[in-house]
Amino acid sequence: MRGILTVAAKDLRQRMRDRSAYVIAFLVPFGLALIFSLTLANVEEGSFTATYAVVNRDGGQVAGSFVRLLEGLDFVKLRTAPTAAAAERLADDGDVSAAFVIPAGFSASAGGGGRIDVITNPDSSIGGVVARSLATSFASDLNAIQVSVAVALGDHAGTPDPAELAALVERARTTAPTATLQQDTAESRLFSSTTFYAAGMAVFFVFFTVEFGVRSLLAERESGTLARLLVAPIRPGAILAGKSIATFVVGLVSMTALVVASTLLLGADWGDPVGVALLVVSGVLAAMGLTALVSSLAKTPAQAGGYASTAAVVLGLLGGTFFPVSQGPAFLANLSLIAPQAWLMRGFQELAGGGTAAEILPSVGAVLAFAVVLGGLGAVRAGRLTAR
Fold first, then answer.
1. pTM of the model
2. For residue 15, what pLDDT band results from cuts at 50, 70 and 90?
3. CA distance 99 to 78
4. In the structure, what pLDDT confidence band is assigned to residue 275 with cuts at 50, 70 and 90?
5. What distance in Å separates the CA atoms of residue 163 and residue 172, rounded to the nearest whole number?
C-alpha cells in the first residue's frame, strides 16, 4: 500500500505542477459552458412572448371576457387598435405578432355564429399559431356553454326568462369540467440550456482530463524512469494502482469543481446530489477505462494522446455532449448508446428533470459496465508495459 500511495502522490504532484491540467480540467469546460448557456439561454421553454393588438368594436360582455383572457396571459403583451385597418398595419409592420378583431354585435351573436378575425404577422409564425389557437379555444368554450344551456332548457316552452338564461350561462361558464387532460411528456425531463451545457462540458472534458494516466506510463518508459521504478521494491501492480488512483482523483476533482461552479455561478440545476455523485464517480471510472485501453494501443506518449483525444471527441459528439441526440434521426439515438457519454447525459437529464438516484441506476449501471470492460482490457494491456 505504501508503494501505491507513493506513486499516486508523485503523479499528483506532477499533475498539479502542469498548468495545462488546470486549463483542460476546469477553465476550458467551464468557459464553454458559460458561453453556450449565455448565447443559447433564449431558446429555453417559457421564453416565448408575443405582442397582440385587439380591436374591440363590440364592447359587450362576451367580447370583454376574451380581452380579459388575453390580459391574464403572462406571455402576452396587449395593445389596442382603433380599427381593423390599423391592426393590419401593425401586423404588416411587425409591431405585433397578430391582431384580434372583434366585430360589433359579437356578444349578441356569440350564441349563434359570432366570429373573431385573426390578422397575423407573416414574419411571426409561432405568434400567429398561438393567436389562432387562443381564438379557437375561446370559441370552443362558447360552444360548450351554448350546448350546456340548450340541454338545460330542454323543451322549455316559449322564450326563457332573461334572468334565468343569464344564470344558466354563468353556471355553465363557472362549472368545472368533469374530466381534464393532464400532460406528462418527455419535455418535463429536459435540461435547461445552462444545465445541459454544464453537464455536457463536464462529461466531454473528463475524458481528456484522465488521459494522462497511461500516457505518463509511456512517457516514463521512454525516459527511463519506469525502469528505475521496476527495480525498486515496488510491485508492478502497485505502479498501475498508484497511477490509477492519481488519475481518478484528478478526474473526480475536475467534475466536482464543474458541478459546484456551474451551480453557484451559472445557476445550473443538477438535481439529486446523491445521483449526481453516482454519475460523477462512474463517469470518471468509465473515462479512465476508455483512455487506458485506447492509450495502451500506442507506442509513444504522443500517439497515446492522439488516440485518446480522437476517441474522446468522436464518442463525446456521438454521446450528445454538445447537442441533444434526440434531435437527430432515430438510428443516431440508438447508435449513441455505444458511448458511455450518452448514458451519462441521460442520467444527468433524468436528475435535472426531478428524477431520483434510484431512477438513474440503469444509467449508472451501464456506465460502470463500460468502466469494468474497458478498464479491464486497458489494465491487461497496460500491465504489459510494467512487465519486468
1. 0.61
2. confident
3. 9
4. very high
5. 14
Percent of the chain past pLDDT 90, that is, above it, reads: 22
Span 95-108, average pLDDT: 86
Q: CA-to-CA distance for 102 and 107, rounded, in angstroms?
A: 9
Other CB atoms within 10 Å distance of the CB of residue 345: 27
Helix (H, G, I), strand (E, B) or coil at 76: strand
Q: Measure CA 133 to chain center.
A: 27
> Phi, psi (5° rounding) for residue 104?
-60, 140
Phi, psi of 24 (to 5 degrees): -70, -35
Q: CB of 363 within 8 A of CB of 343? A: yes
The per-residue pLDDT of the chain, averaged, comes to 79
Query: What are the pLDDT digits (tens) for 365-386?
Result: 999 999 999 888 887 776 666 5
Which pairs from 72-77 meet CB under 8 Å and 24+ separation?
73/134, 75/48, 75/49, 75/50, 76/49, 76/50, 76/51, 76/52, 77/49, 77/50, 77/51, 77/52
Q: Residue 75 class from Cβ within 10 Å (0-12 exposed, 13-18 middle, 19+ buried)?
A: exposed
Query: For 47-63, what is each residue's pLDDT tens digit?
Result: 568 899 999 988 887 78
Give one DSSP letter per residue of 307-331, joined into a string: HHHHHHHHHHHHTTSSS-GGGS-HH
* Cα diameter, the chain: 112
- Of the candidates 250, 337, 336, which has an alpha carbon nearest to the alpha carbon of residue 287? 250
In the numeric block, which cell numbers belong to residue 116?
373573431
Helix (H, G, I), strand (E, B) or coil at 366: helix
Give the Cα separation of 325 and 137 in Å (integer): 34
